[in-house]
Amino acid sequence: MNVTKLLGLMGCYLVLASCAVSPDRYVVPSPEVTQRQNIAFRSVEIRKISLPAYAASDEIPQQGADGKLTSAGSVLWADTPERAVSLELSRNLAKLTGARVASEPWPFETFADARLEIRFESLIAGDDGQFRTTGQYFVAVESGNERSGLFDLTVTFDPAGGPQAIAVARGQIILDLARYVAANGLR
User: Fold this and answer.
1) What pTM was estimated for this model as a whole?
2) To 10 degrees, what angle do helices 162-184 and 81-97 make?
């Protein structure tokens, strides 16, 4: 009798496990890069992308009017955010500038002319339809002409569009950040 009950329980567990809902995953689409920006470097290494804990999570967070951050465990980014943001920034900078751009570890034999580090203070979609990012960038070069700067960028999106609208807004804000860094930090 105990074996029968055990087999029955195992069968119920397998049925429940097979009915479990897998999370929805959202890819950040690549916005079209139509502009060109001249910079002072032929090659740029993106050394480090530092995200706040909520933005580094696989869950897609949103900020309410009261400042409270919420997310659902069933709505996730398709890729780990630090890796994805680093690759998005690298791709956008390469397309904008025509320079050889790669995230760390630097894959080439010769060192990059400049090293870029981005420290995000915020990277969040608001219930008000504003996707905002703030933080600081650092450009290190061997010539000693190192520089840094602050950024504060906003992209509008339709909150009714849900996670897909947030993903599109994140893609756009990373492109806007690439433009900003190219124009202000890499010239």
Assistant:
1) 0.88
2) 50
